[in-house]
Amino acid sequence: MKKLLTILFILVIPMAAFAGGQQEVTASDDAAEKIANAKYVLLFIGDGMAMPQINAAEAYLNSKAGTSPGVKKLSFTQMPAQGLTTTYSSNSFITDSAAAGTAIACGQKTESGVISMDATKTKVLPTIAEMAKAAGMRVGIVSSVDVDHATPAVFYSHNQSRNNYYEIGLDMADSDFDYFGGGLIKISKTPEGEKTAIEVMKDNGWTIATTREELNALQPGQQAYAYYDTSFTTNSLDYAMDQNDEDISLAEYTKKGIELLDNEKGFFMMVEGGKIDWACHANDAAASIHNTIAFDKAVEEGIKFYNAHPNETIVIVTGDHETGGLTLGFAGTKYDSAFTEIDNQKMSYEAFDKYVLAPYKESSEGRGKLSELMPEIEEAFGLTELTDYEMEMLEGAFARSIGNETERASETQEYLLYGGYEPLTVTITHILNQRAGLAWTSYSHTGVPVQTFALGIGQEMFNGYYDNTDIFKYMKTIMFAEEKLAMAQ
Fold this sequence. Notes:
Number of domains: 2
Strand order of the largest sheet: 7-8-6-5-9-3-10-15-4-16
Strand content: 5-15%
Shape: globular
CATH superfamily of the largest domain: Alkaline Phosphatase, subunit A
Low-confidence stretches: 1-34
Distance between the termini: 18 Å
CATH topology of the largest domain: Alkaline Phosphatase, subunit A
Largest sheet: 10 strands, mixed
Mean pLDDT: 90
CATH class of the largest domain: Alpha Beta
Helix content: 40-55%
Number of strands: 16
């Protein structure tokens, strides 16, 4: 017990810097006992989600309610423990998901692009999920994007590069985890003549579920991988705003995961809202907002489980970094906001590219006119009564998308304007976002801190201002009593 309390004293958050001053956070003997006995750990990671993404979703929900300016809180922003978390990697102040995920999963900084190895790329770092499995707990990994993507991968794989998708997929197939759910791994990365990772999984006895019926039929005790392969987006779930009743949501994969993992020895499950990040890379505020809300619905499944097991469970919600440099405020709207403008957008940038712009580009053969597309732009984004400036932006972007521009912009200028996305589509989202009072600074990540929230056993440890590596340390303290820690290590 003395050794355990010493560990707790070292790992506990030293302070919380808020408006009321600095408050020291400590754990009593009783609290230490409770922390050491946490049986169920649910970790939710909103990829690319920091305060701007959260606040935009809450402001949008409030505007939907038709009330005065304010926010309608998401479920996780009402959790009792809340902190700020730094995200830099070992070689960059602005991290990528691999390094940020490794910090959360393993408690150490590494270089951007590295999957659960140290910064020298020579030492394998044990993950919190692997430790949980070694200690006898069941383990599940869920994501709205492909589960060999960086954030899911850091919990089960160890690789010098996040881009080695085939090797990462084989690590997944050979793992002793119990459940994977959500997106499809990149089977297109399979070397010629080799088995796909899914074929290896089948050889290893995994049960594969690709429909809602097969998902619902899964039973505890099966080693299962449930993915959705009928979306129009490659390897991932469709954006929440593009989904219909036939689509399987992130919340459904989360709910089923809890059902499959629940057992007397406890479980660890990580759930990633990966398409928040993808939407923000493309500067699509509507897609980001709707996916943040979808992520919150998955968190609600964790909260339901907590309510049934309040003395044995911790639910943690965090982000790995911010994406896009989203800000709530735009020079053109000054002090005004109009979040209801977001409702004018009926499909994501990705759906518009696939179902509207791509067919038009093919049929027009580089000789189209913006006026021919305007009715569909108005239908998809509600852009009417365009100003001369907005129309000029659209005309220039249209020329670049269709290929009939008379003067090509420099590569640098092209990237600054459009970030590598379809010029017309990203310009449309920019105009709509600006009308709502939202703006962007980047098509990449930024270095601002993210927020971390916690509910349950040991929640007080997550108050304050700390590094992403500390999330691992707090989880480790919460999950493992001294004897269980010895098994995990």
